[in-house]
Design brief:
115 residues, single chain, two-stranded antiparallel ribbon, mainly alpha
């Protein structure tokens, strides 16, 4: 049997995994990650729905020129293309500052518990 190094190989390892899952540090890591991801998903969904609603119910408004010949609809479209890159950059910064240090502490706790 091939293992990836993440499966518990003994009863002691299984107990260590369960203890890790129940630890306050792991719960904090999971909570921070979920809160961040839910917020970013809500932001992107709101932008997408706003664009769809504007195109569907106010087709004249998306044709309004905003900057020269560039209309509001094109700005919405560009925004939907740029938003994932912005979300990704923000996520990398957030993860590096908030999630990675906490994940490192959780990993160290886990490694100590397995010894």
């Amino acid at each position: 049997m091939v293992t990836t190094g993440t499966e518990p190989s003994t009863g002691r390892d299984a107990a260590a995994y369960l203890a890790l899952q129940r630890s306050p540090a792991f719960a904090r890591l999971r909570s921070r990650s979920r809160r961040y991801l839910a917020g970013m998903a809500a932001l992107f969904l709101a932008a997408f729905v706003a664009t769809a609603l504007a195109v569907g119910w106010m087709p004249g408004s998306v044709a309004l020129p905003m900057v020269g010949q560039v209309g509001l609809g094109l700005l919405f479209a560009v925004g939907l293309v740029v938003l994932p890159a912005v979300v990704c950059a923000v996520h990398l910064r957030y993860a590096g500052r908030r999630l990675d240090p906490l994940a490192e502490r959780v990993r160290e706790e886990f490694e100590r518990g397995r010894r």
